[in-house]
Amino acid sequence: MFSGLLLFSILLFLVGLKLSAFFSGSETGFYRVSTLQLTLQKQRGDTVAGRLFYFVAHPERFVATTLVGNNVSNYLTTLAIGLMIQAVWQEGGGGSEIVATLLLMPVIFIFGELIPKSLYYRAPMSLLRSGSLGFNICYYVFLPISYPLIRVSRFVSHFGQSDKRPMEVVFGRTRLYGVLEAGQREGLLTELQRNLAENLMQVANQPVGLSMIPAAAIRGISENASIDDAVSVASATDTSHVLMRPDGRANQWSSFVRIADMLTSELAPRLVKQSLPGFDATTPRLEVLAALFKDYSPFAAITENGEVVGIIRRQTLVSQLFRVIRPASSELETLLSAAASSESRQ
User: Fold this and answer.
1) pLDDT (tens digit, 9 = 90+) per residue, 19-65?
2) What is the pLDDT of residues 74-121, one digit of tens each?
């Protein structure tokens, strides 16, 4: 009877210590884990990340479960200490229980609080993932007790809500820069990808008129020009496309001809010409670039008050929108060179 009670109390103490370590560490890990990384993993269909993200989206449920779990672990360790005193001295007293509690307090603090919190602080994602199923089970087991706490938490938070949207759906530029830095720190973005994103934010909304070539500086042909005229201009400008304008309307570029199509079909330029898409000079650069890729057009006419004032090349926008602000890496140079070569072959 004596050894059985002592053994049971030791096992009960270890269970309480384990629960204390689990809930204390999970609490630290929850506030350290990357929400961005969890979101991306959940979108890829990761069920474990989905369980963890549920608590990120409902923090009051996580806090209530952790609170109940810590209280259960504290009760088990206290009960185990009382049973140990009873098993050793047969008659437990207040003084002996206080002494035993003081003696075991460093053990509880080190193994139930300090070490778990330190481990979860250093590796929150991996440790939370390994214990996600156990925490989920505890959530449903403790729900009859924790549910009133959840309701009270929601009631209190209702009076402290601000005008911010849930989960910061709309990010300001400063916040978005922080997300990019977190993405690189978590290994989700390379430095090249982060640089591209930062540059994209800086110049994407700038008007396309800042990047255009003035209409008067364009060398092209009229719509009634011959094949030889088109080839001559293409050779002089070292390009595979030649811009065209109506007869008698200087600098009002409205179409272009692809030299390869003209030579293959042996038709006059006006018979194989393609219309230029037109954009107002105030249109954002990124919007123009997206439209040019959608229409497979290498050029666009830039207009002001209905008159063509310039031409924008798709390759120019690609170079401006996706150049790296810091010194370009060899990887970026390779990408841009490949893009330029690909477009010149079109």
Assistant:
1) 999 999 999 999 888 887 888 788 888 899 989 989 988 888 998 99
2) 899 988 888 888 777 765 555 676 777 778 888 888 998 999 999 999
What is the C-alpha to C-alpha distance for residues 95 and 101, in angstroms, rounded to an integer? 10
User: Could you tell me if 74 and 146 lie in one domain?
Assistant: yes
Q: What is the pTM of this model?
A: 0.48
With contact defined as beta carbons under 8 Å apart, do 311 and 213 qualify? yes
Residue 167 lies in a domain: no
Q: Report how far residue 156's alpha carbon sits from residue 153's, in angstroms, rounded to the nearest whole number.
A: 5
Written as one letter, the residue type at 92 is G
Looking at the structure, tell me whether residues 91 and 231 fall in a common domain. Answer: no
Domain that holds residue 290: 208-344
